[in-house]
Amino acid sequence: MDPAIKRYLDEHGATYTPEALRRGLLDAGYDPAEVDAALSGWNAAEASAPGAEGRRTFRNWARWLHIASLVAVFLLVVALKGPTAIGVALIGCAVLGVALVIGWLISSRIGRALLPHGGVFIALVVPAISAVLLGGSCFALLSSAISTPPRQGTVDLEILAPRAFEGSGAADCYTGGGLVGVQVSSQPLGALEGKQVSVSVNWYGNSPGDNPAPASNRDVSVQLIPASEADRPESFIKIFSTQFDEDVAPDALTGVIHFVGLVAEPTEGPATTPLGTISGTVSWDCR
User: Fold this and answer.
1) DSSP string of 60-74?
2) Is the dihedral of CA 181, 243, 233, 160 positive or negative?
């Protein structure tokens, strides 16, 4: 056997498949018959050498750990973000695949050095760490890059006299973010004094059984948007004296909040009249 071929096989044989080894040698300009004879002799020697079974086990597990990491990242992203994320997940996993190949080669080289001292399981620690770190980093990047589309829901709003109003309409419902809760933003629900009325609700609990939520975790605001730019919009928001009484489902996808004392947000310029307040009830269904 050509010494150069033997050095190549000794260095790369535990990492690459026989087909890849053969292709590498042919690309380097060696005669096909010489390569085939060298591979046959080297494989026979490796098969009979002490520790050959351990090296084969290590090589297979190191490869499959990285492949499993790639598949797991793709499935988790699609499961959490929905079918619309498949395209981005495929692109991200293609980039991850390149990183995993590099990680596999480097970690396999380190693991092979540990084989004679600690055995297969100790040697596999390095490829396992490589697969977990690379897969976890890619998953975190893809999760933050892919926005979750909102649920479609409905909202009912009642404002008590003197500025009485009742209206219903569609809403966008945003869930998740690591807590049990929902952010609801309604479409225009109707008109009050010539202004389009909409409402926003934020409700977050600390756990599915945390009902009612602490006051800092809930918020209601009502917006009145005029049709003409000459008129000023109005926004009623929560302040320290605002009172809430709610009945919210454990998953926060449905709920009712009775509010007292939402206060008109100050507008630019000197205040000529006291700030107004409104009270009423808002309910949502985001199932």
Assistant:
1) HHHHHHHHHHHHHHH
2) positive
Identify whether the C-beta of residue 267 lies closer than 8 Å to the C-beta of residue 231.
no
Q: Report the range out of 70-84, 101-115, 158-172 with the highest average pLDDT.
A: 158-172
The H or E element containing residue 110 is helix 86-123
Span 96-121, average pLDDT? 74
- Check residues 169 and 272 and name the one with the higher pLDDT: 169
Of the ranges 82-91, 98-107, 211-220, which one carries the lowest mean pLDDT score? 211-220
Asked whether the beta carbons of 277 and 243 are under 8 A apart, the reply is no
Mean pLDDT (the chain) is 80
What DSSP string describes 12-45? HTTTS-HHHHHHHHHHTT--HHHHHHHHHHHHHH
Short-list 268, 265, 270, CA closest to 278: 265
Q: How many other C-beta atoms lie within 10 A of the C-beta of residue 228?
A: 8
**Coil/strand/helix, residue 80:** helix
**pLDDT given at position 1:** 67
Q: Which residue's entry shows tokens 């790369």?
A: 12
Taken in order 233, 237, 240, 243, the sign of the CA dihedral is positive
